[in-house]
Automatic annotation (TrEMBL):
Part of the binding-protein-dependent transport system for glutamine; probably responsible for the translocation of the substrate across the membrane. Belongs to the binding-protein-dependent transport system permease family. HisMQ subfamily. It is found in: Cell inner membrane; Cell membrane. The keyword Cell membrane applies. Its main location: membrane. It comes from Roseibium polysiphoniae. It holds the Pfam family BPD_transp_1. This is Amino acid ABC transporter permease. The chain crosses the membrane at residues 20-49, 61-80, 187-209. Residues 25-213 form the ABC transmembrane type-1 domain.
Length: 221
């Protein structure tokens, strides 16, 4: 037990690693503050395109959604960060992470939005149009508010997954939380910084997990 505590819950090492872990946590928060709004906005555009009456808009959108949902986000990130330089396109680690998350998350958020839009009957749109609203206004003022409410638990759950996926940024040497923890582990030869990183994620995500559960119960009633 003493050896276990020394390797995984070494308070001295945790104190020494605290500054670098705190910086990594700050970079994770910055990354979340960028990629989550981008994914939500991109997903909304994807959902609107997916429900457009024009086939030449719907079909390419469906193909792209299937493509980016099928490609693993890690493979997409490595392609953007390590593959595009062969075509003369060099991106910073932060930009590469944001771009890969935009493509991947827009596809998932878009499907969630689309499910919400499909849950609203066509009568809502027709009633909105009868009041003088055009198609875009009916979507923005009548359909989308109801659709978002219907899929709000799914949006929160997917956002939790996005936060956890930010740890993939460590692959391209972006100094987020997991990368910082791994650097501290390699210096101290101790797993306590990894345990600290897990604790940071727990503190960050536990309220969101409880919120998602509460929204699901509220929607079910």
């Amino acid at each position: 037990m003493e050896q276990f505590l020394f390797q995984f819950f070494n308070l001295d090492i945790m104190v020494q690693a605290w500054p670098i872990m705190l910086r990594g946590f700050g970079m994770t928060l910055l990354l979340c503050a960028v990629v989550i709004p981008m994914g939500l906005a991109g997903g909304l555009l994807v959902a609107i395109a997916s429900t457009a009456p024009q086939r030449w808009i719907r079909w390419p959108t469906a193909v792209l959604v299937d493509l980016f949902r099928a490609v693993p986000p890690l493979a997409l990130l490595i392609f953007i960060s390590a593959g595009l330089p062969f075509a003369g396109i060099r991106l910073s680690p932060f930009t590469a992470v944001c771009l890969s998350f935009l493509l991947n998350n827009s596809a998932y958020y878009g499907e969630i939005y689309r499910a919400g839009i499909d849950s609203i009957g066509t009568g809502q749109t027709e009633a909105a149009r009868s009041t003088g609203l055009n198609s875009l206004q009916a979507m923005a003022y009548v359909v989308l508010p109801q659709a978002v409410r219907n899929v709000l638990p799914d949006l929160v759950s997917n956002t939790i997954e996005v936060v956890k996926l930010t740890s993939l940024a460590s692959v391209v040497a972006f100094a987020e939380l997991l990368y910082s923890a791994d650097m501290a582990r390699s210096i101290t030869y101790n797993a306590s910084p990894i345990v600290m990183a897990a604790g940071f994620y727990l503190v960050l995500l536990w309220p969101a997990v409880r919120l998602a559960s509460r929204l699901e119960r509220k929607l079910s009633t």
